[in-house]
Amino acid sequence: MKVCKFGGTSVADAQQLKKVASIIREDPSRKVIVVSAPGKRFDGDTKVTDLLIDLAEAALAGQDTVPALQKVVDRYAQIAADLGLDSEIMAIIAADLAGRLSFSKENPSLFFDQLKASGEDNSAKLVAAYLTAIGLKAEYINPKNAGLVVTEAPARVQALPVSNDNLSALRYKNSISVFPGFFGFTKDGELRTFDRGGSDITGSILAAAIGADLYENFTDVDCVFAANPRIVENPAEIELMTYREMRELSYAGFAVLHDEALMPAFKASVPVCIKNTNNPGAQGTMIVAERDYSKRPVTGISADSGFSTLYVSKYLMNREVGFGRKLLQILEDENVSYEHIPSGIDNLSVIIRSHQLTPEKEFRIVSRVKTELNADDVHLNSNFSMVVLVGEGMKYTTGLAARATEAISRTGANIEMINQGSSEVSLVFGVLQKDEQKILKELYNEFFAPSYAL
Amino acid sequence: MKVCKFGGTSVADAQQLKKVASIIREDPSRKVIVVSAPGKRFDGDTKVTDLLIDLAEAALAGQDTVPALQKVVDRYAQIAADLGLDSEIMAIIAADLAGRLSFSKENPSLFFDQLKASGEDNSAKLVAAYLTAIGLKAEYINPKNAGLVVTEAPARVQALPVSNDNLSALRYKNSISVFPGFFGFTKDGELRTFDRGGSDITGSILAAAIGADLYENFTDVDCVFAANPRIVENPAEIELMTYREMRELSYAGFAVLHDEALMPAFKASVPVCIKNTNNPGAQGTMIVAERDYSKRPVTGISADSGFSTLYVSKYLMNREVGFGRKLLQILEDENVSYEHIPSGIDNLSVIIRSHQLTPEKEFRIVSRVKTELNADDVHLNSNFSMVVLVGEGMKYTTGLAARATEAISRTGANIEMINQGSSEVSLVFGVLQKDEQKILKELYNEFFAPSYAL
């Protein structure tokens, strides 16, 4: 039994949905289908989710909602018409949207969630109607009825363990279940949406719950590439990688699969396959628990910008039991998470994603570290990038760090930070943002180009 | 004005003390002299401090103290006789020791401190007597009267700021002040000894207090070497280095100068010179605030064994604000300090000096991390060594990490950890203890040998 998730571009229009239907029809083990909201059909198009946000904003502002609502309805209506569906499905979708608009606006965030989630929800209804229309036995599944129970606010939205039991029942349905991605309900029945990439998460939760043999994640790329194709020309395709490798790659710049989405599949040992709706014959990228790494120690290289460094020095810092803990407490008080803490003898740096900082937060953090920890020197620098070399068995490959640092030094760039030693599958370099791309290219050449010439 | 500290071997016997006297006589600006207790005269000899520990143990055990006391008295008496001093100084020393033996044994730790500190105290009295006997104007200074005030138990022994004011008065004495190293007194007049290497600390405190032009630290080596001479043959001599370089080198294996001893001199910007009592003509190693690093990015390479790694992994760890802080809190509860925290995406390692751990502590730490932090995997490994490359300006030298990692890979050893990025003056490699020496040798060859051949 397989769980298939289809992303926004896979359900963007009738033509795409026909591909989806043929993919489903082709393999009877594709029994649980998770769908996103209709995405962009062409460059410059607007996703349904964004139309829904406009609609929610208009409603909250007390403006006329008709034009914005019409745009949403039109997108679905166009798809339904092009698929030759009768008017029943559009009546259902229109009624659904009207119902949501009459939802209480007292808590704007809950109202937003209601509207946004309709994108996936109505997409699932539409897909189920279409599959039924073409003669497949398919059923729209309501996440509330199916029991996808999530954490209450203000906790980050996560599925509760009870969901696993509830959702396992889908295994025994003899029809194809079409499940909307992106949202669940609290114990009290309140709708909450997952983080970005939430349909990937829903698919993974379902794959784990039904104990799927495979979780197929259909996107618009043939596979995961060894490096960002917008920076490296024709990068190598990754055929097989481990969960850990995917997770470390997605951390820094690999947007193919939302990192949180891997967890349920990983914990339930369900292999994941990244496939292309537009080219389902391509074998895609398999993500599994283990792989033989003797032939290729490096699987991929990712890079991401937008990091800041909080540098703290204090003479004899390492004699002070509790110094690091107090420093992290100050960051926690500001709700700032950190990525790495490289340290010298009398100093340490905390690498932080810059989007978490504001000038006020920065000021408070720096002054608290100065006064409460009596630091000799404290400062924050931004414009750092992280370049991450990922590969199982890298740790056991002698000379790999030497090849990587040598490659970076060929670019003339300085290495601001090296972090190796905990993860067995990654080697992290902190570099100046301006050097990020040339370093990525050079590392790619070092580890992937068949022959390297200066 | 200079503060000169003479270590144990420099005051071990009459012959050595004559060298000390001639060093003092040679330069009238050498006005404050700090002395250790008489050290070993030859391989297999016993230091006075160790004789004093035997004496204290005998006294606490209620045994006959005469034999152990006699050994201590004999050492001083031999020196006094060989220096041709009259019996007065030995009467003073014997009375001092008798007085200390009658000190309350209620708190064994305070009793130990009393006895141990007598080594330096009587050494200072003897040196002052000798300098006076050869016609110099010299005076033994009692640290209690001079106002070397230290923290109360149970805090780590450190000089309080008031000491600085009190001790600055020594600047205006026209005689040579002979000051015992290693101890001070709390506000309540209780004697407390500094950590290991405590005479270096006393000298540094005095140098800062009187605003010395130079703090000369006399030992039995000509200089600080770029690597451990017991491992690397004829290592390069370091002529000039910065406080930061000395501090980072002393962290891992460079026992020349106790790391804490640099702080007062560093804060007061007093340059430090490491010199050899047995070869005072050698220029020694100067330790200053800044040096031109354009010619030689690496100053020295140190290595130290006895590190353990606490590895913790948990899926999506980096999304959990507070994870690292809670982990460090668990270590703090066990009074364990850490050295480095290399981290991957979903895992981190804490590098700890193994001597802080016991099997019980390890068990408690591992089980608390498992249960309280819900970690997926937790384990402790020992037998790691840290190899540290130290040099001002290393951070600005492109390709240095590449040269270092390349050198290590030539040895066939694996790099378990790389930590670079906070300190501007060091690059730390974690390696298996068994590989430590070959790596040190290879790194030395890479950065110091005039020409390197495989």
TrEMBL record, chains A, B:
Keywords: Amino-acid biosynthesis, ATP-binding, Diaminopimelate biosynthesis, Kinase, Lysine biosynthesis, Nucleotide-binding, Transferase. Catalyzes the phosphorylation of the beta-carboxyl group of aspartic acid with ATP to yield 4-phospho-L-aspartate, which is involved in the branched biosynthetic pathway leading to the biosynthesis of amino acids threonine, isoleucine and methionine. This is Aspartokinase. GO terms for biological process: diaminopimelate biosynthetic process; homoserine biosynthetic process; lysine biosynthetic process via diaminopimelate; threonine biosynthetic process. Belongs to the aspartokinase family. The gene is yclM. Substrate binds at T49, E120. ATP binds at K5, F6, G7, G8, T219, D220, R230. One of its GO terms (molecular function) is ATP binding. Residues 389-454 form the ACT domain. One of its GO terms (cellular component) is cytosol. Gene3D superfamilies: Acetylglutamate kinase-like, VC0802-like. InterPro entries: AceGlu_kinase-like_sf (IPR036393), ACT-like_dom_sf (IPR045865), ACT_Aspartokinase (IPR054352), ACT_dom (IPR002912), AKIII_YclM_N (IPR035804), Asp/Glu/Uridylate_kinase (IPR001048), Asp_kin_monofn (IPR005260), Asp_kinase (IPR001341). It is an enzyme of class 2 (transferase). It comes from Planococcus massiliensis. SUPFAM superfamilies: ACT-like, Carbamate kinase-like.
